[in-house]
Amino acid sequence: MLKALGLSILCFSILMPFSIVGQVQQVKNLPDTDEINSKIRAEGMEHSHIMHTMHYLTDVYGPRLTGSPNLKAAGEWAIKEMTSWGFENGHLEPWNFGHVGWTNEYLTAHIISPVKTAVEVRALAWSPSTNGAVRAESYNMILPERPTQDEFTAYLNSVAAKVKGRVVFVGKYVDVKINLNPSPRRQDDNAVKQRYNPDNPNAGQGGFGGNRRGQQQAPDPTKLTARQMGEQVDAFLLANGAAVRVMDTVETLATVDHGQIRAFNNRTYDPNKIVPTVVMRHEDYGRIVRILADGTPVTMEFNIVNHIYPEGTTVYNTIAEIPGTDKKDEVVMLGGHLDSWHSSTGATDNAIGCAVMMEAARILKAIGVKPRRTIRVALWSGEEEGLLGSKAYVAQHFGTAENPKPEFFKFDGYFNIDDGTGRARGASVFGPPEAASIVRAAFAPFEDLGLEGALPTNSRRSGGTDSTSFNEAGLPGIGMNQDPIEYNQYTWHTSLDSYEHIIEDDVKKSAVEIAAAVYQLAMRDEMLPRFSKDQMPAPTPPPGQQQRPGATTARPAADRSRR
User: Fold this and answer.
1) pLDDT-based confidence at residue 66 (cuts at 50, 70, 90)
2) Where are the beta strands (DSSP E) in 249-387?
3) Spatial CA neighbour of 107 closest among 119, 99, 91
4) Contact 33, 443 (CB under 8 A)
5) Which of 233, 238, 312 is nearest to 272 (CA)?
6) pLDDT tens profile 458-505
7) What is the pLDDT of residue 541?
8) Which fold has domain 21-99+188-211+312-523?
């Protein structure tokens, strides 16, 4: 999932309270709603395919880095699986990623002296291989803090001779404190009820908001930014013949806990522009730089084999459908992103989101419903690099409120799940209050499973997850909120993000709830209400321009190319 530092959930608009009685009645008037919901529960809880799907998406096809053969193979397998369930029109839809594909095939890392031991690392994505096994002495390059360009140039010149042929540990040691007060793994039930209560004047608050980074101080134009320094360090190490660059995993994200590795990507996506680079577990990084600080030489050995795939410039979204009947030209969509980072097999981010959405649609097919509208499952690619796959799909099929394509007017809503293994607790719905009230009414029969409702948002800011690609276009994106479990602190993009961290009961419940809501939208006489032309919020302005007063914001996209 693409998230900002601190990970926040979609910010909900706080709009005037409204009655949902009419919308509840609309749902109750659908044919055999109670009976359908009972069948959905039974199929989803007693005959689930989720863990089977998870096994293939993680154990067999993980990790699934954008542009890699694994990602395409996972999409092909998902199409085959959904076709076996009776889905139709299964296919891969291409879009232009613009960068080569990359995978790490082999990696060893050892201290050779003064002790002999293996250390835990991951290759930085889109970094080059070593030329076989490389053995070299180590050097800790401690960068100055917020230097001017002249100060930084002088520093680089002073250490140029020290990096040639060396394993360079870039960055000083950072003391990561033991967290004595970890965040709760479940949301408080009463707090969730209040957050999704439309009659609560503070609805949408209670611990989740938009940009948690708060007010950002204006940068000093005389000082280099971290990104500018990083770009210059890349070029400096390459020009001065460093053998290997080592990053502490805390450099990739400040919220890292002990024992994890988070490895992202070379910001240029061009392996020719950096030296072989790894991200090291914080405990190993600390051990080595402390030994170096004693004045004791440390010899390391690395053997890194990475592979480049030129064909990875074309990437694919995975699509399959349950065709509708009398309203088959109208579409209800559900999905999640299939791509992942490569530190582990991408289970909680976001194979499980894909498995839940595939399962929700499978449940409906298995119980024999005949939806009026077409139900379309979409498994996105390129989410981790900036929601690229879903943005490409929306642009190709729907356009925007300002420049709509014909399919724009036939689109009902898109359900998205992307916050790990925790059970669904509520949703944000882009649109007027009436749209959220319809979704809330569809969720109402599942309050016993912990699902508390839905609130409207009027933000067209994209970032964080794929539902916001639809919001940005002025379409009803429905983003699910979940219990955090281990996600924010332990599994998000880390070496711990594996099959073992899935809670089967939670994800079964989420699939049941979403299946029921998708069914309701697929069967209603009318599509979800939308903002009228004169009520449609303005598109989010480019960075540096002021947003329209009153618009709420979605969680901002993180910079995945942080080095």
Assistant:
1) very high
2) 277-280, 299-309, 314-322, 327-337, 373-380
3) 119
4) no
5) 238
6) 999 999 999 999 999 999 999 999 999 999 888 999 999 999 999 999
7) 72
8) Aminopeptidase (3.40.630)
Q: Residue 321: is its pLDDT beyond 50?
A: yes
Place 14 in a pLDDT band, splitting at 50, 70 and 90: very low
Q: Which of 204, 192, 194, 206 is nearest to 12 (CA)?
A: 204
Residues 6+ apart with CB under 8 A from 161: none
CA–CA separation, 360 vs 442, rounded Å?
14
Tokens of 371: 């939806």
- 155/152 Cα distance (integer angstroms): 5
CA 384, distance to chain mean position in Å, is 6
Give the rounded percent of residues in the chain with a pLDDT score beyond 70.
87
What is the C-alpha to C-alpha distance for residues 44 and 50, in angstroms, rounded to an integer? 9
- The structural domains of the chain, with segments of one domain joined by +, span 21-99+188-211+312-523, 101-178+214-311
SS3 288: helix
113 forms beta bridges with 299
At 151-179, the pLDDT tens digits run: 999 999 999 999 999 999 999 999 888 88
Please report which residue ranges of 348-479 form alpha helices under DSSP H.
Answer: 352-366, 388-397, 433-443, 467-473
- Are the beta carbons of 401 and 411 closer than 8 angstroms? no
Query: Contact, 13 vs 550, CB < 8 A?
Result: no
436 versus 28: which is more confidently predicted?
436
CB atoms within 10 A of CB 297: 12
414: CB partners within 8 A, 6+ apart:
332, 333, 334, 335, 378, 467, 470, 475, 476, 477, 478
* Mean pLDDT computed over 404-418: 98
Helix (H, G, I), strand (E, B) or coil at 162: helix
Residue 216 is predicted with a pLDDT of 55
Read off the amino acid at residue 60: V
The per-residue pLDDT for range 18-64, each reduced to its tens digit, is: 333 444 444 445 557 999 999 999 999 999 999 999 999 999 999 99
Q: What does pTM read for this prediction?
A: 0.90
Residues contacting 174, CB < 8 A, separation 6+: 248, 250, 282
DSSP state letters, 78-105: HHHHHHHTT-EEEEEEEEE--S-EEEEE
Residue 545, burial from CB neighbour count under 10 angstroms (0-12, 13-18, 19+)? exposed
Task: Return the amino acid letter for 459.
Answer: S
Fold of the 101-178+214-311 domain: Glucose Oxidase; domain 1 (3.50.30)
- 381 has pLDDT over 60: yes
How far is the CA of 96 from the CAs of 64, 168, 344, in angstroms?
Answer: 17, 35, 25
Give the three-state DSSP class for 322. Answer: strand
Which residue, among 164, 130, 101, has the nearest Cα to 277 in the 3D structure? 130
The rounded mean pLDDT for the chain is: 89
